[in-house]
Every structure is written in C-alpha cells, then in structure tokens.
Amino acid sequence: MPAIVLIGAQWGDEGKGKVTDLLGERVDYVVRYSGGNNAGHTVITPDGQKYALHLMPSGALSPNAKIIIGNGVVVDPKVLLTEIDGLAERGVDVSRLRISGDAHLIMPHHRALDRVVERYLGSARIGTTGRGIGPAYGDKVARMGIRVQDLLDPGILRKKLELALREKNQILFKVYNRKAIDVDATVEEYLQYAERLTPYIAETRGMLWDALDRGETVLLEGAQATMLDMDHGTYPFVTSSNPTAGGACVGAGIPPTAINRVIAVSKAYTTRVGSGPFPTELFDDNGQHLRKIGHEYGTTTGRERRCGWFDAVVARYACRLNGVTDLVITKLDVLTGLPKVPICVGYEINGKRVDDMPMTQTDFHHAVPVYEELDGWWEDITKARTEDELPENARRYIARIEELCNTRVSVVGVGPGREENVLRHPLLP
C-alpha cells in the first residue's frame, strides 16, 4: 500500500486527530511530519476516554500502528516525555514510538525569545503559543539548530549550544532586558532528557522506505492546517512550517510518488485561533452558538477560537493546493437547530465579485463574504451512521459543499466520538 496524507483544510482544529484514530487500526505507520507542541489533537475513544495529544502522533491510541515523529517536527523533549509518561500511566503502549534523529530540538532560548518578542510586538503580534516553535524553525533555516541526534553526543550538544547562545543571550539581555540562558544548566538538563529519549531515536526515513517496499500503509499526519502554511497560508499570520500535503514528503523523508491519497479535514463551519484575516468570522449570537455548542477552545492553549460560517473559497483552495482526493466534514451536529446555515461562496473586494483566493494580503483582509443561505434542520443527527439517516436539509448542505469544493465528501462527523460518523465513501480501499 502507498502513503496517505491527512491535512487540515482550514486554520487548524478541524478534527484531524479523530480521523487519524479512525484510520489507525488499518494503517501500519502513523507519522507526524510538521509542527511542534503548538498543535493539539483531541481524540475520544469508544469507551469515552479523552486524550489531548500535542507531539505524539494520534496513532498512539491505535494498538497496532507504529508511530513516528519525523524530521520536519520541532521537539520539546520535556513536553514529549511528559506526554509519554501520561499515556503510559493510562495504559497506552509508547514503546512503538520512534523519533527522527534529524528532528530539531526546542531549547530554552527559543521559548524565551518567542514569549518576549510576541509581547513586544503589541497590537502587531502574530498570536503564537509562546512555545518556541518559530524561533526553533528560524534556527533550523539559519543552520544554527540543535537536533535530536545531538543528544547522543554531549560534546556536540555543548558546542552547538554555546555557539547559539553567543547571539541569543545578547538579544535576551541587551535588547529585551531578560536573564541570559546558562549553558551548563541547559546541557545538564538536556542530557537528562537524552537518557530517556535515546531508545526512541532512529533513522526513520529508512524505516518508512522499507515499510513502503513491503506494501505497508503509511499515514502522514500534519499539524495545523493549509491556511497556516508558511508559504501558502495567510502570511504572516501562519505557523513556521509547511503542514500542506507537499510538506509531508520533506517532513517525513518519503518520495512524492509514494503518495496516492490526500485526505483533508474541514469543519462544517470555520474556526481559527490567533490573529489574522478571517472573512466569515461572526461576532453575533451565531458565533457564540458555534463556540458554545462546538466547544471551541484550543486543545493546547485553551484560548477561545474565533468562529464563522463555512468558507467554500478557502476549502476549494485547500482542495486544489493539496490535491485532495477525499474530504472529511466534521462537527455537522453543531449546526443542528439553526434555521439557516449560510455558506460563503465568494468574496466581494472593492465592489468586485471574486470566487478564488485573493492574491494579496490586503485584498484578503478586505474581503467581504458573499453568502448562499441553506435551510437548517432540527433533528438530532448524532445517531446517524448512513447518509439516508441524515435529515434532507443536512444532506443538501453536504452536497453543496461537495459541489463547491469539486471534491467528494467521504465522511461526515456527527459527534465527537470515534464511531459518530456517516461514511459516504471508504477512506481506504
């Protein structure tokens, strides 16, 4: 079997973890290929247990899948070990985890700089989580990064850290009046992490190549989503990596020709966390309804998510950009009870109708959504498992999304549980 990529089609928090978990029992590997612990997946198992995962691939909850943190991820070892311990305490087998030696480490100076820079930006802040992800990727690109494999060589770890802190401590102390990072204390801390993480560190590219050669199924799981992609999202209000399907090859080290299916996940409405343009954002009772009924608070940060109607312009853009073969629509049940369910089918910019993503940041910022209103439904849909069990108006809503995105909707989520789905087309052959 070839590789499958699972991505978010909006600004994140679409329910990718649930889909990964849904597929986990039928795949051999689940690979996290981008982002850091600024992302979160919430998974609810059939027995009602809730898991909030940040660095661990969602496949950790599937007993048969091997789980990999790829080279494209930035790893905070303290956070990862806390997550490993938490899962082990709840009976989850974490011995299947392998971490790419080429993944980069988040260091104390990354977290310190992330927090202080964001604070000094004031009203121009990006809305980062303050967990050091951006600075870690910045050092990676600047060829000053410290990698997971450096934990295996104390001499290299110290040398690289000393080099990095020559500059970073000057910035922290002289520019931002913050305490400098101590080299000795940091080396000692990270060598303690190394003792526990060493058994997990591996050459993961070769593992995946061999798995694909054996005909095994590899699921590549992105963090964040399309509109937060460094190159293709709403820059500069984006993450620091490439969570789109193309980033899966770079972040996991597998060839593009190995991928034959791209599954995109989108809510039945739209949310985003942090700053940046959001054409369909709601500031009225409807927005409050979506937030309350949809429990729209960040898995990682707890921040309230901004809520708005479904944006077909964004969804169509994501489908085309990622080469999406299957669309999963989650949280359809949240729309139950609304008399009308609008869909944004285009924008009006400077008096002109636009049906595709605007080229410039300015135009997207000033885009006014053009809505098409569909009739809502009042029936409880959480027990529906087939399309025929959905109310007629709910079926029409899904059909219209499918038409606007020019991509088949294969699964519709009707509740938070693993089994609360309507299957329209199989995700795996």
Automatic annotation (TrEMBL):
Involved pathway(s): Purine metabolism; AMP biosynthesis via de novo pathway; AMP from IMP: step 1/2
Binding site residues for Mg(2+): 13, 40
Subcellular location: Cytoplasm
Residues noted as binding GTP in the record, renumbered to the chain: 12-18, 40-42, 305, 331-333, 413-415
EC number assigned by the record: 6.3.4.4
GO biological process, one term: IMP metabolic process
Catalytic activity of the protein: IMP + L-aspartate + GTP = N(6)-(1,2-dicarboxyethyl)-AMP + GDP + phosphate + 2 H(+)
Family annotation (PROSITE patterns): ADENYLOSUCCIN_SYN_1 (PS01266), ADENYLOSUCCIN_SYN_2 (PS00513)
GO cellular component: cytoplasm
Gene Ontology MF term list: adenylosuccinate synthase activity; GTP binding; magnesium ion binding
Binding site for IMP: 13-16, 38-41, 129, 143, 224, 239, 303
Sequence positions that bind substrate: 299-305
Active site: 13, 41, 140
Cofactor(s) of this protein: Mg(2+)
InterPro entries: Adenylosuccin_syn_GTP-bd, Adenylosuccin_syn_Lys_AS, Adenylosuccinate_synth_dom1, Adenylosuccinate_synth_dom2, Adenylosuccinate_synth_dom3, Adenylosuccinate_synthetase, P-loop_NTPase
Record field: transmembrane: none
Keyword set includes Ligase: yes
Subunit structure of this chain's protein: Homodimer.
Function according to Swiss-Prot or TrEMBL: Plays an important role in the de novo pathway of purine nucleotide biosynthesis. Catalyzes the first committed step in the biosynthesis of AMP from IMP.
PANTHER family found in the cross-reference section: ADENYLOSUCCINATE SYNTHETASE
Name recorded for this polypeptide: Adenylosuccinate synthetase
